[in-house]
Amino acid sequence: MQQRNAIALLITVMFVMIISVAIGYGFKQLNNATIIVKKEQNLYTKSMILEDVLNILNKSKELGTLLEDNSPSDLYSFLSTTAYLPLDIDNQKIILSIKSARQKININSLNEKNAPLFRAYFNKMMVSDTYVDLLSEFTGKNQAQNEYNNYYSSALFDKHPELFREYIASASHLKIINGFYMDEYHDENLKNIAFDKLFSYSKDKNTTIDLNYAKPEVWELILDTSKEKALKLYQESGLYESIKDLQLSDVEKKNLARFKTSFFEPYLAVDIEIIGQKESSSIHFEYDIKSKRGYDFVFKI
């Protein structure tokens, strides 16, 4: 009798354990499902905010007028007033900022014609020509996919076979390249360069630099000029309409001609930062005023 009771007790304990495990697993699945639903709701909310911002831009009379007038000064005034717009919607703080999408050098525009100016700039920052050679191998599109045609990039792809090869696609992409260079050549001087102020990343090599928004670092590179001259050009920006307004030397004019530049580029860089009670996220994209089209969307959740 005692043996039967012991067996019954054992069966009961095992049954309770199985139920406990099943319930625990069920709660885990429910919790995972809840997390997934919250993420989907979060993504949906971000998509709605993005859609609202795009609608505002598409219907903006101010942007339409800017395009019709083709006025660098009017565009500069507009961007000065929309540089930082804080909003509060449904217990979320939303910070909308709009700036020129053509204030930096597209790193993929590096070519044989302007490479000497890249070299001169990096040499002033105590970085060797080898670094520009490395960049050239990634921006030149001179190697077929899955082939190692160049010395520097071959070594990098051996370490990072998953790395995108067609062009330098983002700041994160460049960070990997920079890390490889510093490890291979033991050159820490690269850390002294403000890449976030210097380069943009687009597969379209023909993007134009709007000189009314060029950063001091950009001026210094494209003109091969002093930091003082570069800062002066930056401080006086916003009203440039022609090369004459820049008051450049003949050498600086020749250097400038190696890049594609203008004084009115109707492209916006839009950043939406969404700050909730427990989490934050951001959306970045570029907007073509002429075609009323957004592109290069980046979500960070």
Compile the SSE list and pairings.
Layout: H1 2-59, H2 61-69, H3 72-81, E1 85-89, E2 92-100, E3 105-106, H4 115-124, H5 129-139, H6 151-159, H7 171-185, H8 195-198, E4 199-200, E5 209-210, H9 216-223, H10 227-235, H11 250-256, E6 261-262, E7 267-275, E8 280-288, E9 293-300
Helix pairs in contact: 4-5, 4-9, 9-10
3D architecture notes:
The relative contact order is 0.14. 50% of the residues lie in helices and 16% in strands. The strands form three sheets. A five-stranded antiparallel beta sheet has the order 1-2-7-8-9, with helices on one face. The protein has two domains: 10-101 and 265-300; 105-262, no CATH class. Residues 4-11, 33-37 and 142-149 have low confidence and may be disordered. It contains eleven helices and nine strands. It has 301 residues and is an alpha/beta fold.
Number of helices: 11
What overall form do the CA principal axes indicate? globular
Distance between the termini: 63 Å
Radius of gyration: 27 Å
Quaternary form: single chain
Summarize the helix and strand pattern as letters: HHHEEEHHHHHEEHHHEEEE
The computed structural class is alpha/beta
| Overall domain count | 2
Give the helix proportion (percent range): 40-55%
Q: Biggest sheet: strands, sense, closure?
A: 5 strands, antiparallel
In total, how many beta strands? Answer: 9
Q: Mean pLDDT across all residues, rounded?
A: 82
List keywords for this structure.
five-stranded antiparallel beta sheet; about 300 residues; 2 domains; 11 helices; alpha/beta
